[in-house]
């Protein structure tokens, strides 16, 4: 809601290897500081847009977005948001996290042990052996793939899982 449409510039999103940069033209409103924004302070520049977003349930309240985003970033172990006041624009940098390939939960370790012993098992057979629901097996395989610990060779139907990283 900070973007100024009076300037002849555009809202920009830039994606780099290590970060996502969001640049909003218009700079900070008078009385708004980065520290106050982090605490949930809000001053609306585009009232019609804000009311439209509220009506469509795209936002829930004024000023709650930045603190909620900061909390989510913290919960995922990501670097704190970086705010850059450029005078005529505001830039927010979101830095990419590093995969924690050396750590696995107890459930992930159980699944990894089974994969190391019987890589060609179907997911339903893994669920039966572990006493889990099929959805749990799929969920934890997905987490292990996201962490770069496990890769699937060939198709998901006839392929096998391969452990490609060491874990603790």
Tell me about this structure:
By secondary structure, the chain is of the alpha+beta class. The chain has helices spanning 34-38, 47-55, 65-75, 106-117, 123-130, 134-146; strands at 12-15, 19-25, 82-85, 89-95, 150-153, 160-163. The protein has a 4-stranded antiparallel beta sheet with strand order 1-2-4-3, with no helix packed on it. A two-stranded antiparallel ribbon has the order 5-6. β3 and β4 form a beta hairpin. α5 packs across α6 (134-146). The protein is elongated.
Offer a concise description of the structure.
The chain has 168 residues and is an alpha+beta fold. Helices cover 35% and strands 18% of the residues.
Can you tell me the CATH topology of the largest domain?
Answer: Heat Shock Protein 90
Residues in helix, %: 25-40%
| Gyration radius, rounded | 22 Å
Parts with pLDDT < 50 across at least 5 consecutive residues = none
Number of domains: 2
Structural class: alpha+beta
Strand order of the largest sheet: 1-2-4-3
Annotation, overall tally of beta strands: 6
SSE pattern, N- to C-terminal:
EEHHHEEHHHEE
Total count of helical runs of at least 4 residues? 6
Termini separation: 44 Å
């Amino acid at each position: 809601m900070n973007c100024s449409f009076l300037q002849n510039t555009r809202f920009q999103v830039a994606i780099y290897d290590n970060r996502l940069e969001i640049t909003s033209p218009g700079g900070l409103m008078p009385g708004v500081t980065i520290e106050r924004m982090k605490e949930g302070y809000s001053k609306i520049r585009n009232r019609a847009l804000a009311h439209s977003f509220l009506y469509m349930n795209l936002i829930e309240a004024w000023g709650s977005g930045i603190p909620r985003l900061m909390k989510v970033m913290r919960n995922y172990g990501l670097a704190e948001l970086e705010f850059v006041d450029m005078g005529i624009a505001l830039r927010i940098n979101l830095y990419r996290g590093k995969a924690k390939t050396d750590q696995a939960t107890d459930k992930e370790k159980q699944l990894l042990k089974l994969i190391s012993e019987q890589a060609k098992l179907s997911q339903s057979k893994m669920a039966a052996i572990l006493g889990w629901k099929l959805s749990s097996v799929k969920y934890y395989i997905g987490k292990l793939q996201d962490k770069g610990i496990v890769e699937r060779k060939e198709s998901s139907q006839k392929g096998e899982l391969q452990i490609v990283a060491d874990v603790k």
